[in-house]
């Protein structure tokens, strides 16, 4: 179902009245790694809504490496997301880590994210086939392109046609960047599937000063959009502080994509 059956067929995944992945327009999603407060999300949404940034991100169920690290605001965070979503008329993307979270997340968000660590959580993927919401499927930390496409196949074959693939870097021997961004995978996925493909440069590089150049390269490679972490006070982010852009840098980056997008 994920495979490209006839040349140049492109699936469009619509997440709100005005925002759709896979069409003419690049879709840019911005926001913090973690939802921290209503005030934080209001500041983010206020700033991003004035730029060409169509959607908001923010985790409320966080897959943290350490069980002692902040695990996310949970339902209170979902209510914050729903508030800014309606106030600023911006669709919201947030992660769902387990089957038991699907219903409540689907009630508050426009798109459900499957994080890297869950890319092969097959029971979760099957359940998301019935979630009735578009899915943002992130590539596993060490998943091959074939495994990534097969993970999408689980969601599609269980009844949900609205899947967007997200390349976010894979583990390799070099730890200078947090992960190694596989840009060839973006081009390959565009050829072998009909699904929209976006890139998360933030988790790929892990360092804010590398996010912008890599984001531009992703667009040059044919990505349909980007999901980028930004924060009103980047160095104070409760998670992934090192890779968070300031809101000003986020807007500047998005402006710099326009000539690249035009050239592709
Ligand atoms: C995230 O988007 O905040 C996240 C945890 O990403 P990934 O699953 O790609 O590590
Ligand atoms: Mn993060």
From TrEMBL:
The keyword Zinc-finger appears for this protein: no
UniProt keyword annotations, A-Z: Transferase
Keyword RNA-binding: no
Superkingdom assignment: Bacteria
GO biological process: aromatic amino acid family biosynthetic process
Pfam families attached to this UniProt entry: DAHP_synth_1
Domain DAHP synthetase I/KDSA: 11-258
Protein name: Phospho-2-dehydro-3-deoxyheptonate aldolase
EC number: 2.5.1.54
Molecular function terms from GO: 3-deoxy-7-phosphoheptulonate synthase activity; aldehyde-lyase activity
């Amino acid at each position: 179902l994920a495979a490209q059956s006839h040349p140049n067929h492109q699936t469009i995944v619509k997440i709100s009245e005005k925002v759709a992945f896979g069409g003419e327009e690049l879709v840019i999603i911005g926001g913090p790694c973690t939802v921290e407060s209503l005030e934080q999300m209001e500041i983010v949404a206020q700033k991003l809504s004035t730029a060409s940034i169509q959607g908001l991100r923010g985790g409320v169920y966080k897959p943290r490496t350490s069980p002692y690290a902040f695990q996310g605001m949970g339902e209170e965070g979902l209510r914050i997301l729903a508030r800014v979503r309606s106030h600023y008329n911006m669709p919201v993307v947030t992660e769902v880590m387990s089957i038991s979270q699907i219903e409540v997340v689907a009630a508050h968000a426009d798109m459900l994210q499957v994080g890297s660590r869950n890319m092969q959580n097959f029971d979760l993927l099957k359940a998301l086939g019935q979630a009735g919401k578009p899915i943002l499927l992130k590539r596993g930390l060490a998943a091959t392109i074939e495994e990534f496409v097969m993970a999408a196949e689980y969601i599609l074959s269980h009844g949900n046609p609205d899947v967007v693939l997200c390349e976010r870097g894979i583990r390799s021997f070099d730890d200078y960047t947090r992960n190694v961004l596989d840009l060839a995978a973006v081009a390959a996925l565009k050829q072998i599937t009909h699904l929209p493909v976006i890139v998360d440069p933030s988790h790929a590089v892990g360092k804010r000063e590398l996010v912008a150049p890599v984001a531009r390269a992703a667009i040059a490679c044919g990505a349909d959009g980007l999901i980028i972490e930004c924060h009103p006070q980047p160095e104070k982010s409760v998670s992934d502080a090192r890779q968070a852009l300031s809101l000003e840098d986020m807007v500047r980056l998005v402006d710099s994509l326009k000539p690249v997008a035009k050239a592709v």
